[in-house]
């Protein structure tokens, strides 16, 4: 019990100045902003007013210095406060880069090609169309893009690139509505697209079916098979434009055989 009493006696014998030197130094915390105490009388509204006045004095200088890196260029506020004439074409590109801003503007997007498949019980028709453009901008237009073509021919609007039916592959009369005829037509059409150089022009393609004939399933098989491997990756949409009659006028009397 003598040790605690001796330590208290030793502590009371040290003067106040020596005791301050023996105490550990206080910890200092790093701060990037000045400290405001309640006694200073600074309110939130006053601090917000000081910040807005600093921005108003230097609108073109952004406080973006971090270490050895300093961001150059106009600040975000200077872009918003710039009183330039409004241009609708630059509306989507004002705060975005050209590579990503154009994705939000539908006017600058590439319009797709379309493959129309009209399948009836008597025949199958395949039509490949492109967005309307002059013949001079269509490399697949043979004879029109040459130097010998007239100016009127070069300005001619071209939208239909191919229009084929089962009669183009040698089928006649009742054979034109068969499954085999539609299959050979689809394979022949895809071969013509590659040979005429149309495949290089196609970036995106939509397939539109119409009718419930045998050619509907035949064209689908060709697209999913070996013949359609080069076009299959460009298809972005598959639609159906079959016309269904709900009510309407009386249909023709069905033909009865036998």
From TrEMBL:
Localisation: Mitochondrion
CC annotations in GO: mitochondrion; ribonucleoprotein complex; ribosome
Gene3D superfamilies cross-referenced by the UniProt entry: Ribosomal protein S11
UniProtKB keywords: Mitochondrion, Ribonucleoprotein, Ribosomal protein
Chain spans, region Disordered: 130-149
An example Gene Ontology biological process: translation
GO MF term list: structural constituent of ribosome
Role according to the record: Component of the mitochondrial ribosome (mitoribosome), a dedicated translation machinery responsible for the synthesis of mitochondrial genome-encoded proteins, including at least some of the essential transmembrane subunits of the mitochondrial respiratory chain. The mitoribosomes are attached to the mitochondrial inner membrane and translation products are cotranslationally integrated into the membrane.
Family: Belongs to the universal ribosomal protein uS11 family.
PANTHER family membership: 40S RIBOSOMAL PROTEIN S14/30S RIBOSOMAL PROTEIN S11 (PTHR11759)
Name of the protein in question: Small ribosomal subunit protein uS11m
Native organism: Friedmanniomyces endolithicus
């Amino acid at each position: 019990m003598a040790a605690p009493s001796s330590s208290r006696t030793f502590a009371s014998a040290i003067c106040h100045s020596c005791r301050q030197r023996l105490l550990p130094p206080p910890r200092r915390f790093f701060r990037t902003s000045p400290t405001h105490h309640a006694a200073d009388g600074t309110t939130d509204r006053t601090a917000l007013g000081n910040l807005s006045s600093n921005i108003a004095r230097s609108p073109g200088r952004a406080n973006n210095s971090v270490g050895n890196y300093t961001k150059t260029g106009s600040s975000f506020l200077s872009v918003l406060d710039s009183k330039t004439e409004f241009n609708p074409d630059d509306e989507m590109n004002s705060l975005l880069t050209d590579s990503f801003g154009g994705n939000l503007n539908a006017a600058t997007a590439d319009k797709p090609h379309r493959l129309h498949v009209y399948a009836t019980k008597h025949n199958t028709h395949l039509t490949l169309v492109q967005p309307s453009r002059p013949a001079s901008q269509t490399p697949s237009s043979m004879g029109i893009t040459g130097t010998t073509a007239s100016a009127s021919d070069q300005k001619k609007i071209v939208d239909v690139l191919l229009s084929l039916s089962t009669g183009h592959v040698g089928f006649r009369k009742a054979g034109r509505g068969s499954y085999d005829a539609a299959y050979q037509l689809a394979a022949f059409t895809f071969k013509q697209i590659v040979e005429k150089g149309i495949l290089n022009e196609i970036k995106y393609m939509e397939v539109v079916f119409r009718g419930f004939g045998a050619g509907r399933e035949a064209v689908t098989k060709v697209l999913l098979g070996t013949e359609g491997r080069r076009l299959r990756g460009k298809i972005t949409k598959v639609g159906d434009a079959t016309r269904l009659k709900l009510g309407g006028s009386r249909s023709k009397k069905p033909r009865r055989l036998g």
